[in-house]
Amino acid sequence: MSEYENVKPRFEFRTFAKTFDESLINKIRNDYPCSGFRQSEEVYIMSNENSLNNTKLRDDKMDIKCFIKSVEGYEQWNPLAKFNFPLVASRIRGELFPAFSIDCPKLEREEYTQDQFIQEIINPNPLLNGVHVLKRRFGTTVCNAIAEYAEVEFNDARFFSISIESTELSDLNAAKGALGLDDHENINYLKAIKRVVGMKS
Questions:
Q1: Would you say residue 4 has pLDDT above 90?
Q2: Domains present along the chain, CATH in parentheses
Q3: Hey, which bits of the chain come out as E strands?
């Protein structure tokens, strides 16, 4: 049984900007106090041929989320798989590269550490781009929805992000209205990163 078999996929609304209106930031900080802070360094594996699978590396693990559908302007994503490094070649060939929608190159090793995977498989491939992402995330709850204000860097390009997530569309609509996000674009990490690094989406 997959560890994600009984996980109900959440709907997400996420927006990015170089700066947000100060009143919006103050509303989040003052009306919805931070309930948790997390900082992480991650590598998103971007593929020219795929924008439906969100693949990222963190702490010698790889996570894959897949896009399911868009409803009322929200995107639904489902956790698909989690891999631990070192990773055997057969899994790279049979499970990871199908998520990138490109052919797997010849693999010289029987298994790969995370650094070997990036340096020997990802970096030499012209269709792939390993983008370094630094996240400083401040979590809270808005109208029963999981909410987050984040400071992020894509290969040192700095942005801010606000997001809300829930399995219930009614909670998302309430949270979006409460935060005043109706006029902001819903853009996921894949699209945001591709815009910054100049890849097609």
A1: no
A2: 10-197 (2.40.320.10)
A3: 10-17, 36-47, 53-58, 61-71, 74-84, 87-88, 111-112, 128-142, 145-154, 157-166
